[in-house]
Backbone:
């Protein structure tokens, strides 16, 4: 009887813990590393109630305009773009359709099951995007297999502002199935950003656009306010990845 009672209590506890995890698959906190503060959002990718995605507009818009059609739980600046033409430096894929071309940089992509993949790509070579529902290319790798190793020059990024100190945004993944999104108002280097994310358990990560383009929106609150209009965002919705936006 005691064994059955113990098993019953144990099962109930496990169900409660699982239910709590499903109720809170997206969590926000401030991560402090060295003298810097980072806004951090952790997303449980094993949950069936989160859906990472990409928003892309052919013109420059305010962050509020970009998210107004279907407000996500979290939105962060996407890949680099030309400040007047809005043309991205890397490929963008939205709902399986390529909406921009640019053959450089690392990739953060979302497959058709809602899982996030981070990988490097060869310069000036096309990618087969068929396995992915969403993707952003043109990002700078900052953590690879648990090692902070930014090297934007080898990825054919020539603008020195990429590796100087600046307000920054980044997206990373952990070994236990979490997506981690960082943004900061502080001026930090790529290495400082990478070390802060590593302290939060991130195993692979890429730096997104930053400087005056840096932005993070969390549950309607602008944690990092951009100084210019934007053309693309990486976002997370709290809904099943198997639903279309209109469902």
Residues:
């Amino acid at each position: 009887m005691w064994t059955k009672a113990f098993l019953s209590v144990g099962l109930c506890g496990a169900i409660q813990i699982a239910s709590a995890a499903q109720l809170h698959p997206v969590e926000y906190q401030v991560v402090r590393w060295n003298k810097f503060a980072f806004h951090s959002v952790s997303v449980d990718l094993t949950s069936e109630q989160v859906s990472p995605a990409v928003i892309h507009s052919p013109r420059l818009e305010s962050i509020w305009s970009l998210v107004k059609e279907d407000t996500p739980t979290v939105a962060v600046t996407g890949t680099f773009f030309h400040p007047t033409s809005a043309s991205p430096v890397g490929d963008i894929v939205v709902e399986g359709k390529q909406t921009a071309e640019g053959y450089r940089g690392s990739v953060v992509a979302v497959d058709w099951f809602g899982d996030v993949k981070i990988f490097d790509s060869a310069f000036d070579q096309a990618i087969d995007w068929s396995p992915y529902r969403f993707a952003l290319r043109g990002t700078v790798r900052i953590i690879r297999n648990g090692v902070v190793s930014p090297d934007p020059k080898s990825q054919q990024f020539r603008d020195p502002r990429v590796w100087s100190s600046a307000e920054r945004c980044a997206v990373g993944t952990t070994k236990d199935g979490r997506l981690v999104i960082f943004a900061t108002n502080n001026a930090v280097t790529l290495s400082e950003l990478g070390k802060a994310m590593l302290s939060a358990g991130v195993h692979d990560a890429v730096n997104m656009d930053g400087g005056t383009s840096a932005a993070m929106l969390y549950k309607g609150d602008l944690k990092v306010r951009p100084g210019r209009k934007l053309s693309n965002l990486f976002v997370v919705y709290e809904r099943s990845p198997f639903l279309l936006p209109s469902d």
Q: What stands out?
A: DSSP finds three helices and 16 strands in the chain. The chain has one domain: 34-237. Residues 34-237 form one domain. The CA atoms of residues 2 and 220 lie 49 Å apart.
